[in-house]
Design a protein that fits this description.
Elements (H helix, E strand, L loop, with lengths): L6 H20 L11 H6 L6 H12 L2 H14 L6 H26 L4 H9 L2 H32 L6 H17 L2 H29 L2 H13 L14 H15 L3 H8 L4 H10 L1 H19 L10 H9 L2 H38 L6 H25 L2 H16 L2 H9 L5 H21 L6 E6 L2 E6 L1 H19 L22
Antiparallel strand pairs: 1-2
Helix pairs in contact: 1-8, 1-9, 1-16, 3-9, 3-12, 3-13, 3-16, 4-7, 4-14, 4-16, 5-11, 5-13, 5-14, 6-7, 7-16, 7-17, 7-18, 8-16, 8-17, 9-14, 9-16, 10-14, 11-18, 12-16, 14-15, 15-16, 16-17, 18-20, 18-21, 20-21
Length: 506
């Protein structure tokens, strides 16, 4: 941790933070509505148009931890860290094919969560409960990792202690409670503008100071070769399987995290989702440029045992202190948007699909909204307590499992749209088998990696554990379906024609 406080950077950081805090509280007045209903508090009344949904889902995908972790992966291991770029590219065609249909079903039936969808589609309470638990367990470490991003930024400016992190999350909890999904939607606009300014400045100014991109790649390659184990700026043949399976599996899981789906359901129409699938590659350009920051840190000679600190340290070394404070604020604010959406999404799951499934007297809309608000507070402070009481590495290890767990929900979601075969009982059995196999694979690797050495026909393939687990899931689902019989109708069969676009969608 730096010995001196970077006062100018800290002042700029605090000013930017105050601006987005005000935006978060004022968001309650934006498209004013009764926030004592879960539809309005948790989904903003399903009224967001193309631009707002683009910022909101982009805020989900490209978090503070993304800005910290992707360059850190390249700084520590080289080219394998680039897998985040193709997996996002792969996710956009899937978004185009799947999410508009899901939106249409959920809009018609007034579903608020994916667990609502599987409850209605398969008429299975226990499958709905399983999906709710999976979503909550997979998202909690993701929220904790946003705190890691804020903590790294604060530490880089020389601030010791955990009190700034606590203050930041108390403020986040307050405006999420009062404004619901409108708060992260408003802040996402400010955050993304700041991120684009930060990245464009970084990819122009930093290489110029380091002698150009040729020097950046040459020096980064030399530095990676000295690591233990040695890294490279090019993929090695032994990494091909792990790289490709990480990209494919992560792309499938990305769309069905609770926070991504919450952003999707806030859209005003299925056409808004289609437009966003077409526009999202603009964020991928940003992600590719962000990844290069890891190589720039190597070329600049940034030294840190904690790879998560390299981007903040790079900015403080290469930029004037006032602009470094602006960049660090962009990263810190980048934690607030996903953390807010994640806490709202998990609160919706708990309220609707855990508590709501088992209480004898159904909650009224105001009671449902009140409980979701309180649960969102508990979730945020639970994540804060987790980070304060344990290491960031433990949160990272749990996040490795999160993607594998979310992947086990994919068969039920997709089958409900495109096939007539599977019943809730079979899918629940497949989910349980996939969860067990995927978790066992990661545990067998000491929870240090989600890449598992799969031995087949005398060959060893290093693959993302989610894919073998989902294959087991599919096999068990098919076997149980053969024994119990198949379903007769899909949700896609019941989707009505789309209404014409409205002015609200643009």
């Amino acid at each position: 941790m730096p010995s001196a406080i970077h006062t100018t950077a800290l002042v700029v950081f605090c000013l930017c933070f105050l601006i987005v805090t005000a935006a978060g509280f004022l968001a309650a007045r934006w498209r004013r509505a009764d926030l004592h209903s879960l539809e309005e508090w948790g989904l903003a009344g399903r009224r967001f148009g193309t631009l707002i949904v683009w910022f909101l889902i982009g805020g989900d995908f490209y978090t503070a931890y993304t800005v910290i972790a992707v360059p850190a992966a390249l700084y520590g291991a080289g080219a394998i860290g680039f897998f985040a770029v193709p997996y996002c590219i792969l996710s956009y065609p899937l978004m185009m094919m799947v999410l508009p249909k899901l939106w249409t079903i959920c809009h018609r039936e007034r579903y608020i969560t994916l667990s609502d969808y599987v409850r209605g589609r398969y008429r299975s309470r226990w499958l709905s409960v399983a999906f709710a638990l999976t979503g909550i367990l997979a998202t909690m470490p993701y929220i904790a990792l946003q705190l890691v991003g804020i903590r790294e930024v604060i530490a880089a400016m020389g601030i010791r202690g955990e009190w700034p992190l606590i203050v930041a999350f108390v403020i986040l909890a307050a405006y999420t409670y009062t404004s619901g999904l409108r708060a992260p939607a408003a802040i996402a606009i400010v955050k993304d503008v700041m991120l684009y300014i930060m990245v464009l400045a970084a990819v122009i100014i930093i290489p110029a100071k380091l002698g150009g991109y040729g020097a950046v790649f040459a020096n980064a390659a030399h530095a990676l070769a000295t690591h233990t184990p040695p890294g490279s700026i090019l993929l090695r043949p032994a990494q091909y399987w792990s790289y490709s399976t990480l990209a494919i599996g992560s792309a499938l899981a990305l769309l069905f995290y609770p926070h991504t789906f919450t952003g999707t359901l806030s859209a005003s129409s299925a056409n808004v989702i289609r437009r966003n699938a077409a526009l999202m590659p603009a964020y991928n350009i940003l992600l590719g440029l962000i990844a290069l920051l890891g190589l720039m840190a190597l070329a600049a000679g940034i030294q840190s045992k904690d790879t998560s600190a390299v981007v903040p340290l790079l900015f403080l070394r290469m930029f004037p202190e006032w602009f470094a404070g602006f960049c660090l604020a962009a990263i810190g604010i980048g934690a607030l948007v996903p953390a807010a959406i994640m806490s709202i999404a998990t609160a919706n799951l708990f309220t609707r699909n855990l508590w709501g499934e088992f209480v004898r007297t159904p909650l009224t809309p105001p009671e449902e909204a009140r409980m979701a608000k309180l649960v969102s507070l508990v979730i945020k402070f639970g994540a804060l307590a987790f980070i304060l009481a344990s290491s960031a590495q433990y949160a990272i290890e749990l996040q490795l499992l999160g993607g594998i767990w979310i992947m086990q929900m994919v068969p039920a979601i997709l089958f409900g749209l495109f096939t007539r075969w599977f019943r809730g009982t079979a899918l629940l059995a497949g989910w349980a088998a996939g969860m067990a196999v995927g978790t066992a694979m990661v545990v067998s690797m000491g929870m240090k990696t989600s890449v598992f050495p799969l031995h087949l026909s005398g060959h060893t393939f290093a693959v993302y554990a989610a894919l073998p687990a989902v294959i087991v899931n599919l096999v068990v689902t098919a076997l149980v379906s053969v024994l119990t019989g198949r379903d007769t109708e899909t949700e896609a069969d019941r989707i009505p024609p789309l209404p014409p676009p409205t002015l609200n969608e643009v």
